[in-house]
């Protein structure tokens, strides 16, 4: 084991995490926002700055960065290229697509000093088409083209609610694909849906994919990705026999169209949406390619993922009313090491904290040390549990013995083992335990 000094040790004492500590006799209000909102606010993950607008504090940003890394990995595998478009798009483009009139009430707009109107984009079909329309020539050899970004979006919700689940400002991944014809676009569509399936499986929370409503985006084909939750604002209909699934906005039936068995109704949170757009935007915005003597409109697909909504949804599903729970792939840190309290008999074992941190660092396990030695281990265990770290290592009474032993708490499974340094290496090197953790080793 290397004893080299580690300069960048993550420490709770240096962490900006404004925790809301309630008095023991405090009365907790029920029905306020959502479980995910209350927990992330209380544990210093987010902070509301305006109605429907939130700051992501350091732990919240780490979660988002880990989710972005998963998305980037899947998009790279799918052959998509990452870019970044301006947040403002000329309102004239939205007028050309027809959406300035149809959804104008949901748009945030700004006017520059020359009285030119701009839209703060809730989605980027107009912007991406304008970009490609100005590139001449795009040929069939350049296609399929897959361009995506991860950025903040804006929607003027009449009644923002449920914290990050329904906000005015949110972080979203939007991918736009371009093909020569509808058949090729359908093939691209299917491949991107496979990437989405892979992503949601990596997150590790059960999801459903349903036939979706085209809504304000439009197009000839649409699917939605949902997490089932009582707090969800959508209703999805599922057939347990043949697997048919649909949003009730599309078809509100009691029996399945495919097998005639009963459909079960579930409240759900929409976290992803895919559309086969055909030439709905490319034609009016003149986004074309050359295939012969005359340019033809590009055939489009668009694919959205609400990243901040995914974060809120998994917290909503996995957590209790008292404590946060994260999927291992998204936890802000995967391991929290608790050092002995200052002045205690175990204080002599405190140097083991950095040694264990070094071991986990070499194993690419994302770790933080709670070095607030003025607090008891019990109090810090309480905070680590509420923050939702999947694993907690305690340097306690048995750590000062001749053969030091350390407690490893698997928070998710409510289990504990006592082990030595070699046992820690074996425990976190076990593929069944560490498989999900290692996928994010290069995130932050």
UniProtKB/TrEMBL annotation:
InterPro entries named among the record's database cross-references: aa-tRNA-synt_IIb (IPR002314), aa-tRNA-synth_II (IPR006195), aa-tRNA-synth_II/BPL/LPL (IPR045864), Anticodon-bd (IPR004154), Anticodon-bd_dom_sf (IPR036621), Pro-tRNA-ligase_IIa (IPR002316), Pro-tRNA_synthetase (IPR050062), ProRS_core_prok (IPR033730)
Catalytic activity, EC: 6.1.1.15
One Gene Ontology MF term: proline-tRNA ligase activity
Keywords: Aminoacyl-tRNA synthetase, ATP-binding, Ligase, Nucleotide-binding, Protein biosynthesis
Gene3D superfamilies registered for this protein in UniProt: Anticodon-binding domain, Bira Bifunctional Protein, Domain 2
Domain (Aminoacyl-transfer RNA synthetases class-II family profile) ranges: 47-340
GO cellular component: mitochondrion
Reaction catalysed by this enzyme: tRNA(Pro) + L-proline + ATP = L-prolyl-tRNA(Pro) + AMP + diphosphate
Keyword DNA-binding: no
EC class: ligase
A Gene Ontology biological process term: prolyl-tRNA aminoacylation
Protein name: Probable proline--tRNA ligase, mitochondrial
UniProt organism field: Cephus cinctus (Wheat stem sawfly)
